Amino acid sequence: MTEYKKAIFAGGCFWCMVAPFDTLPGVKSVISGYTGGHKENPTYEEVCSHTTGHLEAVEITYDPEKMSYEKLLSYYWQVVDPTDEMGQFQDRGETYRPVIYYSDEEEKALAEKSKQELADSGKFDKPIVVAIEPAQKFWPAEDYHQYFYQKNPLRYMMEEAGGRAAFIEKHWSKNN
Fold first, then answer.
1. Angle between the 164-172 and 69-79 helix axes, to the nearest 10 degrees?
2. What distance separates the 2 farthest-apart alpha carbons in the chain?
3. Which of 155, 159, 107 shows the shortest CA–CA distance to 132?
4. CA-to-CA distance for 41 and 157, rounded, in angstroms?
5. What is the DSSP-derived secondary structure letter of residue 65?
6. Counting Cβ atoms within 10 Å, is residue 25 exposed (0-12), middle (13-18) or buried (19+)?
7. Which residues share a beta bridge with 8?
8. Rounded to whole angstroms, how far apart are CA atoms 47 and 95?
9. Which residues have a catalytic role annotated?
10. How many CB atoms lie within 10 A of CB 146?
């Protein structure tokens, strides 16, 4: 029987963080939700009020025999702006901070190593500021937020028009 693992990443609007991971080999599910706050079972409205301390995040369930944690980290760096600590693209504020959450010391070491490798690569002119923090309770978001890119493709395209796709193309295309 497959022993699945979970990874939790925050990188702006959770709607925009599902699609990049959803179709990767070995990924079983990508759930939108909230983490890092102080309120039990927060709602979207409460998180948006900036009073709960939660960030929008995704919880990725994956088969480590088909997808390594290191590979997930590699994908993560390519779908966020690692130089922006107070939001991502059009999503601004604490709720949208980019964070890699680790569940054990091995994940912490791998996350720190990948962050240092990106910093050393010279790919970005500014410092890499993504936080690496211990995982906290993950609260799945309401059903209408799950797999938003599939349920609401037009709205998802409008959200993505906020700069993420252009940023990815600029920094991660094969020509760079």
1. 110
2. 46
3. 107
4. 29
5. T
6. exposed
7. 59, 101
8. 7
9. 13
10. 18
